[in-house]
Specification:
Number of helices: 4
Helix content: 25-40%
Strand content: 15-25%
Length: 189
């Protein structure tokens, strides 16, 4: 009896990742392109990073509707402060995640919009996603939103939404740790 119980526990441990993946495949929408802005997602701009064999960028009504209903927590953030200070926090979070910055378009103080294109990989299998982070200078505040697109596969199993949510949560903590107490973080509405 003890051997059977031990065997059952080992079998459950071995099967757990497969059951989890099956659940995600059935419960989550079949999308691979997720953005905090479903009407005007940040554009990937680094030339030569994406090839024809990779997933095409998607911004159609169906996929955005699926994303909005499945991932309502995927939102941009508005921070009190200048874009250069928020960009420093964004770069810190990127470095902490081990992501690689491919390109930056725009400079704080010179441009109203700064775009950072980044390559992110999953921790276990190293699947690659292209990420673009947009900082918009709104005067007293800076709005940050982002987009994450899996390079391959018709289903990201929620990875892109999780990536964006985790990034924004880490950015909230980084900005709040660097801000005086009277400044606050405001979720986008």
């Amino acid at each position: 009896m003890r051997a059977r119980s031990g065997g059952a526990v080992i079998a459950l441990l071995v099967l757990a990742p497969f059951v989890t993946t099956l659940y995600q495949a059935l419960a989550l929408p079949t999308i691979y392109d997720v953005s905090t802005d479903v009407t005007d997602p940040p554009e990937l701009f680094a030339a030569g990073q994406r090839t024809e064999r990779m997933n095409p960028l998607v911004n159609d009504e169906d996929s955005r509707g699926l994303q909005s209903s499945a991932y309502p927590q995927v939102t941009g953030r508005r921070y009190e402060g200048s874009p250069d200070r928020i960009l420093t926090a964004v770069n810190t979070v990127i470095a902490n995640n081990g992501w690689t910055i491919i390109s930056q378009r725009g400079e704080p103080g010179e441009d109203e919009e700064i775009l950072l294109e980044v390559v992110a990989r999953t921790w276990l299998m190293g699947f690659t996603s292209d990420v673009v982070i947009r900082l918009a200078d709104e005067g007293e505040t800076t709005y940050v939103d982002m987009r994450s697109v899996s390079r391959y596969g018709i289903h990201d199993l929620g990875e892109n939404a999780d990536r964006i949510t985790a990034f924004m949560t880490a950015l909230d903590a980084e900005v709040q740790g660097a801000q005086p107490e009277e400044e606050t973080t405001q979720p986008a509405q």
